[in-house]
Every structure is written in structure tokens, then in C-alpha cells.
Design goal:
2 strands; elongated; two-stranded antiparallel ribbon; single chain; 2 domains
């Protein structure tokens, strides 16, 4: 549960960035790429790269995802540049690459590593507590009921004295200010 909420926020942020860039891509590059009739029409090779387009929202999201995972990005960029006849797709994809790869995905990975470290620390604490319980059970089994309860009473008194001393020390420091 500790991991779910922060990662969902990051994924929602990534989706919003994808949505914004997809809408920009639809308005700027929508309808530029269509299914070619033969091997090479208008600089678009007929090797299914025509499916990577900005003709609708779904295709735009797939195009941006394939660009995000750096799946043959030079071919995608060259196809868009050849189809549009402008260098603006290079600028568009470069801005998308910098924004998503360098910023958002790095934040997402850093957050995952931080969450992993936090969960690992919590698990270590739980294992330490479990180890202490096992040690207490073995001591209880070795010394018997009566001696173990006497030992626990003495330890509880010592812990209570330490807590009282800490609170008294805290009161004195607060009163002296």
C-alpha cells in the first residue's frame, strides 16, 4: 500500500503529459501519415510505420509510448519529418524526449527506489522484532514461567524509570527556556 499511491500519482502525471503531447501531435501532425498504396509513397516506407501516426488519440498515445521506450525513434522521427515536409516533428519529439525521459521517468524511478528502501527498512524492523520475540520465547522456555515473569517485571520497571527520567529531563529543558 505504501508503494501504490505515490506511483499512481507519478503514472497519472505521465498520462497527463502523454495526453497533452498527443493532442499537440494530433493538431500538428494528424492526417499527415496514411496507409501507403505501394512500397514507398511520399517518403513513408511500407513496413508498418504508417501505423505510428497522430491520426487519432489512441494512435498518438501508441506513437508517444513507442518513442518513450526509444523503439526505433530515428525511423519514427524521419517518417514524420518526410511526411510533414518540416523539421518541426524533430523539435516536437526532442521536447517530448527531454520532458519524459530526463524528467518524469527519472522521478518515477527515484520514487520507486525510495519506496523500496523504505519498505526494506520497515521489513528489517519487523524481522528484528520477530527475532527478539523468538529470543524471548527461548529464554522463557529455558528459565521457566516464574523466573521469566520476574525478569520481565524487572525489565519493565527499568524501562519505565528510563521513560520517566527522559520526560523529567525534557520538562527541565523546556522550563529552562
Amino acid at each position: 500500500m505504501k508503494m501504490t499511491v505515490p506511483i499512481m500519482y507519478q503514472l497519472a502525471c505521465l498520462y497527463i503529459v502523454f495526453y497533452i503531447f498527443a493532442i499537440i501531435g494530433i493538431y500538428g501532425l494528424g492526417g499527415v501519415i496514411r496507409q501507403p498504396r505501394f512500397h514507398s509513397e511520399g517518403g513513408i516506407p511500407n513496413n508498418l510505420y504508417y501505423l505510428i501516426n497522430f491520426n487519432d488519440l489512441g494512435s498518438s498515445m501508441v506513437t508517444l509510448f513507442s518513442f518513450m521506450i526509444i523503439n526505433n525513434w530515428p525511423a519514427i522521427t524521419d517518417t514524420m519529418v518526410n511526411a510533414s515536409g518540416s523539421v518541426l516533428p524533430r523539435v516536437y519529439f526532442m521536447i517530448f524526449y527531454i520532458f519524459v525521459q530526463w524528467i518524469i521517468l527519472n522521478i518515477l524511478i527515484a520514487m520507486m527506489i525510495d519506496i523500496f528502501c523504505t519498505v526494506t527498512k520497515d521489513m528489517d524492523k519487523d524481522y528484528d522484532r520477530l527475532d527478539n520475540i523468538i529470543k524471548l520465547k527461548t529464554i522463557h522456555h529455558k528459565v521457566g514461567d516464574h523466573r521469566f515473569h520476574e525478569f520481565c517485571d524487572v525489565m519493565n520497571e527499568n524501562i519505565m524509570k528510563e521513560e520517566v527520567d527522559k520526560s523529567e529531563l525534557l520538562k527541565r529543558t523546556l522550563d529552562s527556556r
